Amino acid sequence: MGRAPCCEKVGLNRGPWTNEEDQLLINYINENGHGNWRALPKKAGLLRCGKSCRLRWTNYLRPDIKRGNFTKEEEDAIIQLHQELGNKWSTIASRLAGRTDNEIKNVWHTHLKKRLDNQPEETKRQRTRKRSKKIDTSEQPVKNNSAIKDNNNDKNNDGDQEDIIMKETNSPSQSSETTSTVTSSSCTSSINDDTLEKFLDDDFWADVLSGNLSNMDANHLPQVNGIGIEEHKTYPLLPTSPVLLDLDGFEYFDPNKSQDDEMDFWCNYLARDGELQELLSNV
DNA sequence: AAAAGTATCAACCGCTCTTGA
DNA sequence: CTCAAGAGCGGTTGATACTTT
């Protein structure tokens, strides 16, 4: 039968909101709340439909919204929650303080999904190449137009990207360990004796450190601990010596570290895995 | 420097769910 | 119980900024 539109749209503004419109909406809601979205625009003096007002408020103007780049912890949380809940963006958003369903949905489609998908190898390489030109140990992607667009409305962003507060703490992946950055949920813990031998083989590490990786079965690393989810990543497991990996060839290991240090690093790292620990004990 | 390609994100659309008469 | 209105949700689009060629 079809239902009537939420409001008469003829003569109403559409598209991006102006500062004046934002201010009208903020002022009205601050004084009166938003009991009835449909009636709100008229009362607030806005030439918008109620739906548009609600969206603008919930996704952008609400004072408790945290804007700015997603932290690694937030991204990991989204990935995990998406695995549990699917595309329940509003439910996911309800577990991430200050984030909106729309924002999470956008991040998922533009960033996280690609990270998890089995991308065509060429695309992965392209991305890696792109990023290689600006390798930085910072995990924060550079956001572009939002930073410009937001400059008038970003008053709620205090700039602290590390203050994520999980509203609920029932997520097992959200340990407070200092090493949680690497506790990828994609860890498969699959390792065999051959793989283990590689990690204990000096020649292997010589290849790794010299950049001569032709003999290396790179597939083993991702299988062991989930590395490989991203092209670049810092692994601050060892507080004094993070290692930057480029998984599209493992181009770069910390040049300041000796081969022994590097080997120790990985053995220590991999030894965290219970299965590997067991294997190590049998060596 | 310009064109083409790509990434990002605010906003919209249409559907479902909820509520109340 | 039924139905209509309002609210909410997820998918999609389009404008814009950025990057590459």
From TrEMBL:
Ranges for region Disordered: 111-189
Composition bias, Low complexity: 169-189
SMART domains: SANT
Classification via InterPro entries: Homeodomain-like_sf (IPR009057), Myb_dom (IPR017930), Myb_TF_plants (IPR015495), SANT/Myb (IPR001005)
Molecular function terms, GO-annotated: DNA binding
Record protein name field: Homeodomain transcription factor
Nucleus in keyword set: yes
Positions in coiled-coil regions: none
Compositional bias per record (Basic and acidic residues), positions renumbered to this chain: 115-125
A GO term from the CC aspect: nucleus
CDD domains cross-referenced by the UniProt entry: SANT (cd00167)
Alphabetic keyword roster: DNA-binding, Homeobox, Nucleus, Repeat
All residue ranges annotated as the Myb-like domain in the record: 9-61, 62-112
Subcellular location: Nucleus
Residues of the HTH myb-type domain: 9-61, 62-116
